[in-house]
Amino acid sequence: MSSTEHDEVHRTSGRENILEVRDLVVTYGGAVQALRGVSLSVAEGAVVALLGSNGAGKTTLLRALSGTLSLHRGRAESGEVRYRGKSLKGVDPAHCVATGLVQVPEGRRIFTRLTVEENLKAGGLGVRGHGDKAADYERIYTMFPVLAERKSQRAGLLSGGEQQMLAIGRGLMAHPQLLLLDEPSLGLAPRIIGQIGEVIGEINRQGTSVLLVEQNATMALGVADHAFVLDVGKVSLSGTAAELSQSDAVQRLYLGHGADEAPKRETAAVRSTRKLTRWVQ
Ligand code: ATP
Predict the structure, then answer these.
(1) If exposure means fewest CB atoms within 10 Å of the residue's CB, which of 3, 91, 104, 185 is most exposed?
(2) Ligand 1 atom nearest residue 106's Cα
(3) What is the pLDDT of residue 128?
(4) 123 occurs within a structural domain
(5) H/E element holding 20?
(6) Helix H segments across the chain?
């Protein structure tokens, strides 16, 4: 997407952008070019989906946002990332979390030997200015009752879906303003993926903007307001989730069916009136 098109996204969103990425180029070890000039934005209060196949650069983009590129020998060569209007250049991961930019990494990465509650506690470490930890646990246990039932159990005993919920809950302990979710549906059964989509909608309704990286386009477009498709390090398509659901390329590549079988997606109005199905697996 050119800078002009990026400006168009900015203007048409009608809201301030909490995140703006412009012409971002990232390499690993100075050789592999993983992002080749990516521009995208996330409007305040929105859920934005980032779709793309293996190796497209989705995780690399999240690393660039959460200050973790250098941990993987990655480097932003050029371009700009702005969060709440401020450049993220040289900002370390702890500072990102402290300012509300929180990543839930691919593959859960929970502490399997610690209990559920200890994992949640770890998510709140180093987060200042949000005094009432009891209220934080309560919020997460209300959203995920199964975590309340299992709070004293070792996290390694949870099912894959429950571990994903714990990873999301741990991220919520840091009071994100922009939550970066890296493939939360990975390896999970369709029913559980549906519940994850509902949870993302609920988190958003409670006031958190979300950038959702997904290969599961059905779930992602079902919950997102806007979406971008990343293709070998470049944005190849962008639009509202409804527009992309109807796009032939998205249907063929990511939704796995013909143009006359568009996925059923809810409008934002329908979503806002729906209650979250409790996580009671
Ligand atoms: P996946 O869904 O498979 O994780 P992705 O869209 O998240 O894919 P990335 O993991 O960002 O893609 O990878 C983008 C490119 O960068 C790929 O060519 C990948 O091989 C390369 N890459 C990713 N991490 C590293 C690294 N630490 N060192 C070298 N190359 C890397």
Answers:
(1) 3
(2) 4
(3) 67
(4) yes
(5) strand 17-28
(6) 3-13, 58-66, 93-98, 116-124, 133-143, 145-149, 160-172, 190-205, 217-223, 241-246, 248-250, 268-273
How far, in Å, from the CA of 25 to the mean position of ligand 1? 14
Q: How many CB atoms lie within 10 A of CB 105?
A: 18
Which tokens sit at 86? 């401020």
Rounded to two decimals, what is the model's pTM?
0.85
The residue segments making up the domain with residue 50 are 45-63+92-273
What's the pLDDT tens digit per position in 235-244?
999 999 999 9
Question: What's the pLDDT score for residue 84?
Answer: 94
- Assess contact for 270 and 136: CB atoms under 8 A: no
Question: Is 171 inside any structural domain?
Answer: yes
CATH number of the structural domain spanning residue 162: 3.40.50.300
> For ligand 1, what atom is nearest to the CA of residue 63?
11
Is 113 a member of any domain?
yes
Asked if residue 134 belongs to a domain, the reply is: yes
For CA atoms 248, 251, 257, 261, the dihedral sign is negative
Residue to probe by mutation, ligand 1, list 58, 73, 181, 236, most atoms within 8 Å of CB: 58
Planar angle of CA 58, 88, 209, nearest 5 degrees = 60
Total of domains in the chain = 1
